Amino acid sequence: MSDISGAPVGPGYTPPPGPGLGNLQTLVAVLQALVRGQQQLIEAIGNFFPQASSTVATTATAGTGTLPAAPSKFLAVTVDGVAYKIPLYLP
User: Fold this and answer.
1) CA-to-CA distance for 43 and 36, rounded, in angstroms?
2) Domain limits of the chain?
3) What is the C-alpha to C-alpha distance for residues 66 and 84, in angstroms, rounded to an integer?
4) How many Å apart are CA 78 and CA 84, to the nearest integer?
5) Cβ-count burial 67-90 (b if 16+ within 10 Å, e if not)
6) Is the pTM of this model over 0.70?
7) CA-to-CA distance for 70 and 62, rounded, in angstroms?
8) Where are the alpha helices (DSSP H) in the chain?
9) Along the chain (91 residues), what's the average pLDDT of each consecutive run of 10 residues?
């Protein structure tokens, strides 16, 4: 016996493998594993990069020490589209 398209139907007919509940359960399991992995990645990034904060000052009157003659490095940053080089000194 067959349907209008010629595909077999009737008692004892087993459809060929294809999209079904088993594949849906597999997809759900894969998505759950993906979300768990993403959560672990976010946690690892948070542990690797500690939280930082910064302030902007227009003067350097807070300290009383004398700066060395030359900085050891410069930190390049962009603030509101303007590039700056901040001198870094070793302690």
Assistant:
1) 11
2) 20-50
3) 22
4) 6
5) eeeeeeeeeeeeeeeeeeeeeeee
6) no
7) 20
8) 21-48
9) 62 64 79 89 78 65 70 85 84 66
